[in-house]
Write a structure and sequence with these properties.
The chain is an alpha/beta fold. It contains ten helices and 13 strands. The protein has a domain of 210 residues: Ribokinase (UDP-N-acetylmuramoyl-L-alanine:D-glutamate ligase).
Length: 316
């Protein structure tokens, strides 16, 4: 059985690079690469965890179409347990056209598709209850699930003894706290970017943001802070882990890779600072390859990357 179940958005990503300017309307421009990749927060985190040697399953929804077939097959090839993926007979598989600039910055055109139709009834509860950790990945991009339905799932998972984690996506609707409020008290670990967390709380200082989320019931807040690394808070302690500088190729999936590394640390019983360092290492490795998962390494390779860059042994 899996140690982790990643619940959330599943997306087929079509990546083109480099794209430093849009062609004129009705015109064509060329790119050096165009590839199809696994995408979506749940899929990305699941592949990252599986690469790190953490048995992981995915639960979510795709369409009965070519993109859906691709996602299921690609996840299975990565070793991820896909029996929790439901198929929608009407909505297509969610997909994103991703243009990647020369400096690694990304621009997206997104179709929400079957992710909008996910409901608690679609989930494999026996799978979820068998896991040690439930990672809800891509909150705010599942309009039929976010809010009270998701809160009920987190509540029931906790009641079954499962540790709950959550990561958000950018909320183009601007609802933020209105949507997330019922979910927060049922999160053991909340892993948003600092930009997303500022939008959620309406605050600007990272410590104030974290303490606001703790006041809403989150047990542990880990903020992904870009060049400042990761800062983690609970009610009793705080920790900081700096970044591992690399030459970026593509920033797609870096936040999901961080979540995979952080959760990997949790499954090993590490303290919060080491979990954050592992998350930063996975995020750094992610951006060295094109797509959301190709730059990631296995557990031993990631530990070696940390030793090379910092001289530190995370297992010590």
């Amino acid at each position: 059985m899996p140690d982790v179940v990643a619940l959330g958005i599943l997306v087929a990503d079509v990546l083109g690079r480099p794209v430093d300017e849009w062609p004129e309307r009705g015109k064509l421009t060329r790119v050096d690469e165009m590839t199809l990749h696994i995408g979506g927060c749940a899929a990305n985190a699941a592949v990252g965890l599986q690469k790190l040697g953490v048995p992981t399953a995915v639960t979510g929804k795709v369409g009965r179409d070519g993109f859906g077939d691709y996602l299921v097959n690609a996840l299975e090839r990565s070793g991820v347990d896909t029996r929790g993926i439901a198929r929608d007979d009407t909505a297509g598989t969610s997909a994103t056209m991703v243009t990647v600039a020369s400096d690694g910055e990304r621009t997206f055109i997104h179709y929400i598709g079957a992710n909008a139709t996910v409901r608690p009834a679609d989930l494999d509860w026996e799978l979820i209850k068998s896991a040690r950790v439930l990672h809800m990945a891509g909150s705010l991009l599942m309009p039929g699930f976010d809010g009270e339905p998701a809160a009920q799932v987190l509540r029931d998972a906790r009641a079954a003894g499962v540790t709950t984690c959550c990561d958000t996506a950018w909320d183009a609707t601007g609802a933020w706290m209105k949507t997330l409020r019922p979910m927060l008290e049922h999160m053991d670990y909340f892993l948003p970017s600092v930009e997303e967390a500022k939008e959620i709380t309406g605050l600007t200082d990272a410590a104030d943001v974290a303490h606001s989320l703790l006041d809403h019931g989150v047990s542990c807040v880990a903020l992904k802070m870009g060049s400042e690394g990761c800062r983690v808070w609970t009610r009793d302690e705080s920790a900081h882990a700096p970044i591992f500088p690399v030459e970026p190729v593509d920033a797609c999936g870096a936040g999901d890779a961080f979540c995979a590394g952080f959760i990997c640390g949790l499954t090993k019983g590490w303290d919060l600072e080491r979990c954050a360092a592992m998350g930063n290492a996975c995020g750094a490795l992610c951006v060295t390859g094109l797509g959301t998962t190709t730059g990631l390494r296995d557990f031993a390779g990631t530990l070696e990357f940390v030793r090379e860059r910092s001289g530190r042994d995370l297992t010590a």
